[in-house]
UniProtKB/TrEMBL annotation:
It comes from the Eukaryota. Its cofactor is Zn(2+). Keywords: Chromatin regulator, Hydrolase, Metal-binding, Nucleus, Repressor, Transcription, Transcription regulation, Zinc, Zinc-finger. This is histone deacetylase. It comes from Herrania umbratica. PANTHER family: HISTONE DEACETYLASE, HISTONE DEACETYLASE HDAC1-RELATED.
Length: 583
């Protein structure tokens, strides 16, 4: 939780110094709230402008706000004034004889306190205990206990929560070592030093707490440390980075280490530790890739930041500095892998990864993301973007046309597009650019994928490459969603079941339409997709016919008389019976 004080100016004219303003709730606004405070003059007994002995009110203004005394005639008026009284005593209200041109209001400041939700970073007023957006408690324990902590109360049986989490996993707990552990995790606390120096209207969504929440969840579950083998971090070398990025880009990122605070784009920040953190993240990903491919470990999870899939050959953008997935892919190839598959399920298209490999037939890039006709950030990733210069078909984009996409659409796309193409490609090594911002509750992605959905997609991809799979953290900005999803994915890497039943998956209408669009484009390069496309086309036709029948049934709720068919109401008869349609 982050607290902040908002100074609100209240204009008073010699009013009571203890006068307080009121708090105004303003969700989703970055502007300060201004409140006007009105004077309330009172004596010790709480009476306003009256004396206990007099039954009349004196209007007397002997002192101006600037302290200059002015002699004025005292006019005695009845306590209860009527309009006639006011008319007959206009002199008592006439201030024309005074010169108030130099009068200035006294500025008073009322503090309006607000706090930012630890879980989703949204702003709340100080007197609100639970976040209005995600429901997380003001004093959330998610950074200490991960998603196992109660969202309702900071002190609600936290010890019991942690012990229950360990109890669930006690059958699989053992001390990690290189000989008995099949899953490696790359993490280094120095990556937490990468942060925005000066907070703007609210905390930046790509913040160190993302790693803290995941690490706390893994600790509470007894997974890491415990079941997973830790990888020692090292900084990536300039030579390794130059396989992916231009020298100018590398030097630009390094330059930020000499500056307290800098920005590559309005939303992509850096401080003096950012370049170091980016080198550590890329180095961990490279070492995990080579370690997995060489067989030292079976699979791995790179718990790293800053993320990378938006970083292109020459530019940093979208919170990303170096492209970690691209570095890992080339490290795997350096270790002997001939063909590498990258599946990017971050809600945003990985434009940087696509740019780096769009002319490379040895790397197949598949991305599932919100697109909405190019209106969703970064605007790239349309279905017709398939690769260039002889590598057509090695870039596969599955662009969702709306938000709210959930498990069924993702699993359906995996079944009919991702796995058929990936199986035909037959990769030696598989990388997941695992952004969890399509998760339910994420404030940026606004989709509906559950931890079970992510676990099932991980399980489906683990059948490729002989199980040689590296998962690299990308986006994800709701701490509860990102930590629960990452934990579910790592459990699958450890050999647990996903708990998801993928049979009889029914996609949404828009999801089905997107999959059909992708199949129509990609079957030119992957002919094995034609049979799946024909099957789905028939299902799509049946789906359309069912909708048409429902619409006709609704129109037939009112059956017109039969004689309307031949009379002057012939046209209306045909409209109501569905034989004629108005456009």
């Amino acid at each position: 939780m982050v607290s902040e004080t908002v100074q609100v100016s209240c204009v008073t004219n010699g009013g009571d110094k203890n006068n307080q303003g009121f708090k105004r709730k303003h969700l989703g606004s970055d502007e300060n709230t201004t409140t006007c405070c009105h004077d309330e003059m009172s004596d010790d007994k709480g009476d306003i402008g009256t004396s206990g002995r007099d039954t009349t009110t004196y209007i007397n203004d002997d002192t101006q706000p600037d302290g200059v005394s002015v002699s004025r005639k005292r006019t005695r008026l009845p306590k209860e004034l009527t309009f006639q009284d006011m008319y007959n005593n206009q002199d008592a209200f006439d201030d024309d004889d005074e010169d108030d041109s130099d009068w200035e209001p006294v500025q008073k400041h009322v503090e309006i306190l607000k706090w930012f939700c630890t879980n989703c970073t949204m702003v709340n007023l100080d007197d609100v205990v639970h976040c209005d957006i995600c429901g997380e408690h003001k004093e959330s324990g998610i950074l200490k206990h991960g998603f196992y902590a109660s969202p309702c109360s900071p002190e609600l049986d936290l010890i019991q929560v942690e012990s229950e989490a360990r109890e669930r996993d006690k059958d699989l707990r053992f001390e990690a070592s290189a000989s008995n552990c099949s899953t490696a995790v790359g993490f280094d606390e120095r990556m937490l030093l990468h942060s925005e120096v000066e907070m703007k209207s609210h905390p930046h969504p790509e913040r160190p707490d993302r790693l803290r929440a995941i690490a706390a969840s893994l600790t509470a579950a007894g997974i890491f440390p415990g079941k997973c083998y830790p990888i020692t971090a090292r900084e990536i070398t300039q030579e390794e980075l130059q396989r992916v990025h231009s020298l100018e880009h590398i030097e630009t990122v390094e330059l930020t280490s000499q500056i307290l605070s800098s920005y590559f784009t309005p939303d992509t920040y850096a401080n003096k530790h950012s370049a170091h953190a980016a080198r550590l993240a890329a180095g961990l990903c490279a070492d995990l890739a080579s370690g997995i491919f060489s067989g030292r470990v079976r699979n791995g999870f790179a718990l790293v930041r800053p993320p990378g899939h938006h970083a292109g050959v020459t530019q940093a953008m979208g919170f990303c500095l170096h492209n970690n997935a691209a570095v890992a892919a080339l490290a795997a190839q350096a270790a002997g892998a001939k063909k590498v598959l990258i599946v990017d399920w971050d809600v945003h298209h990985g434009n940087g990864t696509q740019e780096i490999f769009e002319q490379n037939k040895s790397v197949l890039y598949i991305s599932l993301h919100r697109h909405e006709g190019g209106k969703f950030y970064p605007g790239t990733g349309a279905a017709y973007e398939v690769g260039t210069k002889g590598a057509e078909g090695y870039c596969v984009n599955i662009p969702w046309s709306r938000g709210g996409v959930g498990d069924n659409d993702y699993i359906f796309a995996f079944q009919h597009v991702v796995l058929p193409i990936a199986s035909k490609f037959s990769p030696d090594f598989t990388i997941i650019s695992a952004g969890f911002d399509a998760a339910r509750g994420d404030p940026l992605g606004c989709c509906d994928v559950t931890p079970a959905g992510y676990a099932q997609m991980t399980h489906m991809l683990s059948t490729l490459s002989g199980g040689k799979l590296l998962v690299i953290l990308e986006g994800g900005y709701n701490l509860r969603s990102i930590s629960s999803s990452a934990t579910a994915v790592i459990k699958v890497l450890l050999g647990e079941s996903s708990g998801y039943e993928p049979e009889n998956i029914v996609p949404s209408k828009s999801g089905l339409h997107t999959v059909l669009e992708v199949l129509k484009i990609q079957m030119k390069y992957w002919p094995t997709l034609s049979s799946s496309s024909e099957k789905l086309q028939s299902q799509w036709g049946m789906y359309s016919m069912e909708n048409k029948k429902k619409q006709v049934k609704k129109r037939r709720l009112f059956e017109p008389p039969l004689w309307w068919r031949w009379g002057r109401k012939q046209l209306l008869y045909h409209i109501l019976t569905g034989h004629f349609h108005l456009k």
